[in-house]
Amino acid sequence: MYQYYEVEHLTFVFVTKNQVEYSIYFKSSPYFLGDESLPYASFIYEFIIESKHLDDKVLIPLDKRTGETIASILANFYLKFDHSVTIYICDSSDNRQLARKLKFDHWFIDYNSDKSLVKISEELIDSDGVSYPVSLIVKYNNPYFLDIVDRFRNLKEDYTK
Amino acid sequence: MKKKKVTLADIIKRWKHEREKHNKDYARLVGSAEYKIVIENLKQEKTTNVPVL
Questions:
Q1: Distance of CA A4 to CAs A25, A104, B52, Å?
Q2: pLDDT digits (tens, 9 = 90+) for A35-85
Q3: Please, how many CA atoms are within 13 Å of residue B11, restricted to the half-sphere of its CB?
Q4: How far out from the chain centre does Cα A23 lie?
Q5: Average pLDDT, whole number, for chain B?
Q6: In this structure, what DSSP letter does residue A60 have?
Q7: CA dist., res. A138 & res. A145, Å (int)
Q8: pTM to 2 decimals?
Q9: Mutate to test the interface with A, among B42, B45, B48, B52 (most CBs of A within 10 A)
Q10: How far apart are CA A112 and CA A115, in angstroms?
Q11: Is A10 left (phi over 0), alpha (psi -120 to 50) or beta?
């Protein structure tokens, strides 16, 4: 695992051996399940992974420690904020959303060894037909677990009407 | 008064707006002096890990 540092509130940075600079954000997103008055709305965060390296045209080499570090940041976040709900939306601006989803899924499977976190995935499609793979992560012991999962699943119902 | 139903389109529109704000925040962060110092320290492994609770 790489050393990381909380450079701003809920923003963590680390650097890999390939000099890739990662910034990991937990961005407050109380709107995401459609009702900001929900008792858990203020615990909804978007999980954002940003990376910066010298040559953006070159794909970032595979590096096991990157996944370990991101998993550790996520695990520590849930140690501090047990009842949080995190949403990971794969950026589709460069059409690499499925590659991001696969990588994230692998990290999650590899490092959620104690199975304390649950990940539920959906594919949301906007009115322009652009697809966004979206994952919701929540702890099993969240008191609103069923309602959270139900609301997340129902997001998709909107465009199947 | 009955609440207006929030649709998926509303949520995605809001998310895109929030993402634009985030992109500006991210550009500000990576351009900041503090970020550059932290990154240099991390490269040299001088920065202490965030304590685990």
A1: 13, 19, 12
A2: 999 999 999 999 999 998 877 667 777 788 998 999 899 989 999 999 999
A3: 27
A4: 13
A5: 83
A6: P
A7: 7
A8: 0.88
A9: B42
A10: 5
A11: left
* pLDDT tens, position by position, A82-138: 999 999 998 777 777 778 888 888 888 887 777 889 999 988 888 788 888 899 999
- Residue given tokens 């929540």 in the structure block: A138
Query: Would you state the structure tokens that stand for residue B43, as one six-digit string?
Result: 């490269």
Pick from B8, B34, B45: CB nearest A155: B8
Listed in order, strand segments (DSSP E) in chain B are none
Tokens of residue A116, six digits: 């304390």
Task: Classify the phi-psi angles of B45: left when phi > 0, otherwise alpha if psi is within -120 to 50, otherwise beta.
Answer: left
CB contact under 8 A, B42 and A5: yes
For residue B38, the tally of other CB atoms under 10 A from its CB is: 21
Instruction: State the CB neighbour count (10 A cutoff) for residue A40.
Output: 19
